Amino acid sequence: MASPLFFLLLLQSFLVSTSASSTTSLLNQTETLLKWKASLDNQSQSFLSSWVADNPCNWVGIACDRVGSVTNISLPNLSLKGTLDNLNFLAFPNLIHFDVGNNSLYGAIPSDIVNLSKLTFFNLSANGNFSGNIPKDIGRLSSLTVLDLAWSQLNGSLPVSVGNLSNLSYLAVAGNNLGGSLPQEIGMMSSVIVLFLNRNSFTGPIPASIGNLSNCQYLELSDNELSGSIPSDIVNLSKLTFFNLSSNGNFSGNIPKDIGRLSSLTVLDLAWSQLNGSLPVSVVNLSNLSYLAVAGNNLSGSLPQEIGMMSSVIILFLHLNSFTGPIPTSIGNLSNCQYLSLFENELSGSIPSEIGRLSSLIHLYLYDNQLSGSIPQELGMIRYLILLDLSSNSLTGMIPKAMGNFSHLRYLYLYANELSGSIPHEIGI
């Protein structure tokens, strides 16, 4: 049986070995950071003036664990200028947090970044001079919860391996030069809450697998070149509060008829995307919606009579479509609405008197339709109106004296109608 002395000597040997290893690791990390600092321009080096001693754990932007291994490199908003080429990420096996967002870094993202198995936070955003692609093996960073590469001039495609980032809650690659199709594997990111893919050149359809992102709350796909139809499975995203597909000019097909199942939505923007069909009746079930934009599409048919059920809506942009029929009288129930835009459609009939109940309304655009009849007296009840455009319709009769109540009105357009009488001089007073 081994003596207690043997175990004591073994423990001492282990501690000496561990201490030597930690010292070697610290020296390696110190040398790596100083080498990177020296590669930056002079102004950047002055921002890192504390990086002079032997212990980086005391430097600005650096944090370490108990044994002195670097865990955090956090240097955002410092105007650092240079590349990451001289920053050997293999020297930081315990790195958890890396943030150099909003600087002036350029060059490529080093491929050895994918070896940082403990990394949970990675931010390179707002470095507008990066080049090259997102590392194709980025999915090896399986501990990541935040990956922000937005606004950095990156090229290439979104790697298929992102599907392996099962712990990721925030992914932003907005404002780059990314193209190609979105990978089907995107639906495997089951933890994602925020997904910002906007302002790129992605093409092809939205993967049906996107309907598997059951935790997603923010889905931003605007300003791309996506095509095809909106997948019907999108309505499975019950936690979604923000959904923007606007300015994708190659879409086809209809708005999913069950869009109203997205009951948590506060923002729905489908504008300028070449969508067809009608505005689904189920949209009225979006009781939490504050912003609805379907402008600049090829939508037709009548507006749902139940549209007034969207009691939370503040901004309603339905203009530049081919909607027909009357303006629903229930629109007078939108008591929180401040911007109502229905211009350049084919709406007919009279302006409903119920519109006078929109006490919060600031801007009302009804021009370039086929509206007829007189301007309702009740319109004068909207006391905080700043802009009113009823031009280019077939309105008749006298201009209501009640419009004199528009004490805040600054812009009034009534031309190209068949109105008579004078504009009340009290307007805008």
Helix content: under 10%
Major β-sheet profile? 16 strands, mixed
- Number of separate helices: 2
Q: What fraction of residues sit in β-strands?
A: 15-25%
Give the assembly state of these chains. single chain
The rounded Rg comes to: 30 Å
Count of strand segments: 29
Give a short overview.
This protein is mainly beta. It contains two helices and 29 strands.
Description:
With 429 residues, the chain is mostly beta strands. The protein contains two helices and 29 strands. The chain has helices spanning 4-39, 42-47; strands at residues 62-64, 70-74, 81-82, 97-99, 104-107, 121-123, 129-130, 146-148, 170-172, 179-181, 194-196, 201-204, 218-220, 225-228, 242-244, 250-251, 267-269, 291-293, 300-302, 315-317, 322-325, 339-341, 346-349, 363-365, 370-373, 387-389, 394-398, 411-413, 418-420. A 16-stranded mixed sheet has the order 1-2-4-6-8-9-11-13-15-17-18-20-22-24-26-28, with no helix packed on it. The protein is elongated. The chain starts with a helix and ends in a 9-residue tail after the last strand. Mean pLDDT is 94; it is low at 5-21.
